[in-house]
Amino acid sequence: MEKISNMSLLSCLCEKTASSIPVTNPATGDVLGFVASYDKTSIENKIQLAKEAQKAWAKTTAKQRADIMHRWYQLLMANQEDLARIMTLEQGKPLAESRGEVAYGASFVQWFAEEGKRAYGETIPTPLADRRIMTICQPVGVAAAITPWSFPIAMITRKAAPALAAGCSFIVKPAVQTPLSAYAVAELARQAGLPENLLIIVTTEEAVMVGELFCHSPDIQKISFTGSTNVGRILMRQSADSIKRVSMELGGNAPFIVFDDADVDLAVKGAITSKFRNAGQTCVCANRFYIHEAIYDEFTEKFANAVAELKIGNGLDTNVSIGPLIDEKAKEKTLRLLNEAVSEGAEISVGGKPLDGQFFEPTVIKNVSHTMSIVQEEIFGPIAPVIRFSDEASLIEMANDTIYGLASYFYSRDINRVFRVAEALDYGMVGVNEGIISTEVAPFGGVKQSGIGREGAHQGLDEYLNTKYICLGSM
């Protein structure tokens, strides 16, 4: 294990047993250690502990909760380097990206520490003279989450921070590939003074069991999930019997559009950042590139040249831009989509080779058509298919031709087009002349089959609050 200054962050490691879960470095294949695997009974007991802890937590003031959360934020940032190294070791992304994610994840703790103080109710003008009408906001109760390996810290804090600020307790099952980051974040919350059993991590390889348990448990009032659309559908169905509140951040198929009036160099820079961050393993990364025919050759050449400069390797090594894919299955899918595109007439401009281990060269392919599988599916790998378009109307039709609606991006210097296209794109988020748009102060979420609900901003707090109407009569 790479040297970690705050070894309490790794107190979750246990001895190897028949049921423990190995945590593997995707860059080297080395086993980093083992964490406990909880069975159904153990998780049910954890839910009960969370239920009891929430009752007392809900009675604290928003300021008391904020004080603890501010200390948690400070500890996250004080341990940024250790957290980043843990993340790179178990997830693979370059260390610079891991540092950025720690800061990004911590920003939600800082934001919601203050936003929790603004869970305002209302005094409503009464229609009858002898009545007074008001509303108050109260925590939903126990909230549960299932989070992915792609952003193992940020996907927890973006959900846990508003839940805790609202007065909920929070129980989360992280991905089996990245449990160490989850335990480390929870340990720092404990060191910050968060009472016991308000932020509980449960690790298990029985993903189906956990999903069913969270959805069917009468003691869990809210489910938050980040992952594939297929799994999201299952969780929503399972939650229907108990009419459980859900928020879902699901699959994406983000278009990246460059119009003929765009700053091409700026667009190339944004394309690199959006597409190849985390080796293309993000739900909001550019999945398909639509470039106006007047600048198609110029953009594709500059884009390919920039991609050729990206350094592939172990995320702990200096100047690495592209780390490994998370596992062999991800590598196989990336190669399958590339081979299918080439067989259908696409040409490789740069990259295109699977490398030893779980590495794959960052790749640009041109002469791609809108109907190819690599355009229609979410790639979740370092391949950028570049498509030619000629007019705005057909472009909008192609960009919206998907069941997904999470993020989208376009580049233009025409102010009229900026507003026209931003409104026409059927996505929950639109980046204009910008390839990275996520921030704690803005609502994150999609439309269509990319999800339901929002995270971040003041909307993120609303996901964990119930509005109660109080009518005072005989006044």
UniProtKB/TrEMBL annotation:
Q: Does the keyword Oxidoreductase apply?
A: yes
Q: Where is the signal peptide?
A: none
Active site per UniProt:
E249
Q: Name one GO biological process term.
A: gamma-aminobutyric acid catabolic process
Protein's UniProt name: Succinate-semialdehyde dehydrogenase / glutarate-semialdehyde dehydrogenase
Q: Which UniProt keywords apply?
A: Oxidoreductase
Q: Which GO terms describe its molecular function?
A: succinate-semialdehyde dehydrogenase (NAD+) activity
Q: What InterPro entries does UniProt report for this protein, alphabetically?
A: Ald_DH/histidinol_DH, Ald_DH_C, Ald_DH_CS_CYS, Ald_DH_CS_GLU, Ald_DH_N, Aldehyde_DH_dom, Aldehyde_DH_Superfamily, Succ_semiAld_DH
Q: Which organism is it from?
A: Enterovibrio nigricans DSM 22720
Q: Which family does it belong to?
A: Belongs to the aldehyde dehydrogenase family.
Statement: the UniProt record of this protein carries the keyword Oxidoreductase: yes
What are the Aldehyde dehydrogenase domain coordinates in residue numbering? 18-470
Gene3D superfamilies in UniProt: Aldehyde Dehydrogenase, Chain A, domain 1, Aldehyde Dehydrogenase, Chain A, domain 2
